[in-house]
Amino acid sequence: MPAPPRRGPPRPSGPPGRPQQGPRELLTVTPDAWTQRGEAVVHGDKPLLVWAGIPGEKSLVRLQHEGMNQGRARWVEARSPHPLRVQPPCDRYDLCGGCPLMHLNGEGQDRARRALLRDTFKAQGLVLDDGVVEPIVASPLGAAGFRHVVKVIAGWSDHGHPRFGAPSRGTRSVVPIPDCHVITPVLREVMKKMAFLAIDHDLRPWSEDGQGVVRWMIARQSSVTGEVLVTLVAGRSSPGIGRWAEALSGEHAAVTGIHLHLNEGPGNSIFGRDGQGLVGTTNLLGGWTIPERLHGVNLRVGPGDFYQTNPAVANLIARDLVQLAQIKPGVPVVDLYCGVGGFTLVMAKQAGWALGVESNEGAVRRAKESAQVEHIPAEFIAAEVAEAAPALAQRLAGRRPVVLVNPARRGLEEGVAEAIRNLRPRRVLYLSCNPSALARDLRGFQAEGWRVTHIRPYDMFPNTAHLEVLAVLEAPELAEDEDEASLRAPQRRRVRA
Ligand SMILES: C[S@@+](CC[C@H](N)C(=O)[O-])C[C@H]1O[C@@H](n2cnc3c(N)ncnc32)[C@H](O)[C@@H]1O
């Protein structure tokens, strides 16, 4: 049988550049910082990334790869181990690489993320007043079982067997993660069933040369009812998909909806959009959505919709948004990049009206339905933020709204920060999963005279170096008469289904 196609270029076969030192060489080093991904790094002529290392801990490490621009090593031992070091509780910690801070206890992880946030802001030249950056808000469910979504990639093992799991750390193969600690116990079971049944039904990993079928399998569990929504992302259609879905729904009672998304495009994006910008999905079995509940508001989440990874933390954010936005009844709220409308609806309840903008039409449909069911006065527009913003500025002229933005990792697209300022908001709340993009965008606001009053980080993704960060920006000026005028002239519109 010919070898299965790999998903990318082959792995480097050896360390170029230093032939006198093999890749298994042992070195003693003391890392001095964290990388954005959560590896310890030794800076020098060229950086050495130390998996499982800790800055400040003098350690013996094994060199694994030496490239032109950086080297990679694995921590072996330390004569005086760092007091916050622990044995990672996962046997795939090394292979998977999805939890780079799992070798630290809670306090150690917290310190690492705080240091990273500080370094990121510094690197971006963001200067903040003392006390603006608050302590990290902890994950209520701790560091295990908090993830309500699992994205299983299809690929090949090092030996050429089909595999479903996580991209392997440092290679292009895929590693099964049957006992993954960070997803819910039900998602662990569903993930295993999805993978075994894919093998049973000969649904092989898709490759860009048109062979195979499966690209991703995504399962999201409702934090309210425990129901699971599954989306199979396939590179092409196959009769085996229907049989796989039938078998899966029979094998796990929690699975209440199974969908297919066809993504024939190149690249690593999970979802492709059609000519109209839609994330198209086909219902294979069961229901279209699962319920979620955010700060007392009932929502629906469908296949292809974004919803926060850690719903318990999302609840804390929703609580804080209401408090930090200082929303008075009558002040309009605009929620840009609103997804299925959770934060929009929470804020609309407080303010009496809110408007959400989101490019994913399916998510907007769900948001409108939730508004109607919950009797919350909110409107939703399916559009790109940059396109919708000018009309919003006209509509809200003289109203001084509160604006919430929660863009994807890349941050605000070109022109969006200016479009937001043209809405003449009294306050902007900026929620981000990428502190670097956040800092860049905050600097732009500061340059226009805006003041950053709060930076509140949340431990949305325990065991990783990532943080969800909420920033509050105050407008340079707000005349009292303007405030009064905006409250006297509420422009409420009826919610349209
Ligand atoms: C990080 S998610 C936030 C969703 C929502 N705030 C929540 O917490 O559930 C970003 C959202 O922005 C949407 N999006 C991405 N680019 C967009 C754009 N240019 N215009 C409008 N929405 C966009 C995505 O579809 C996604 O739903």
Characterise the protein shown here.
There is one protein chain. This protein has 497 residues and is α/β, with parallel strands linked by helices. It has three domains: 26-91, OB fold (Dihydrolipoamide Acetyltransferase, E2P) (Beta Barrel), CATH 2.40.50; 149-291, OB fold (Dihydrolipoamide Acetyltransferase, E2P), CATH 2.40.50; 310-488, Rossmann fold (3-Layer(aba) Sandwich). The chain has helices at residues 93-96, 106-123, 185-200, 239-251, 311-325, 342-351, 361-374, 385-395, 416-422, 435-447, 480-488; strands spanning 26-29, 33-34, 40-42, 48-51, 59-66, 71-77, 149-156, 162-167, 174-175, 214-221, 228-234, 255-262, 282-286, 290-294, 297-301, 333-336, 354-358, 378-382, 402-405, 427-432, 451-458, 468-474. Strand 16, helix 6 (342-351) and strand 17 (354-358) form a beta-alpha-beta unit. It binds S-adenosylmethionine. S-adenosylmethionine is lined by residues 306-308, 337-340, 342-343, 357-360, 363, 384-385, 406-408, 413.
List the helices and strands and how they pair.
Elements: E1 26-29, E2 33-34, E3 40-42, E4 48-51, E5 59-66, E6 71-77, H1 93-96, H2 106-123, E7 149-156, E8 162-167, E9 174-175, H3 185-200, E10 214-221, E11 228-234, H4 239-251, E12 255-262, E13 282-286, E14 290-294, E15 297-301, H5 311-325, E16 333-336, H6 342-351, E17 354-358, H7 361-374, E18 378-382, H8 385-395, E19 402-405, H9 416-422, E20 427-432, H10 435-447, E21 451-458, E22 468-474, H11 480-488
Parallel strand pairs: 4-6, 11-12, 16-17, 16-19, 17-18, 19-20
Antiparallel strand pairs: 1-5, 2-3, 3-4, 5-6, 7-8, 7-10, 8-9, 10-11, 12-13, 14-15, 20-22, 21-22
S-adenosylmethionine binds next to helix 6 and strand 17.
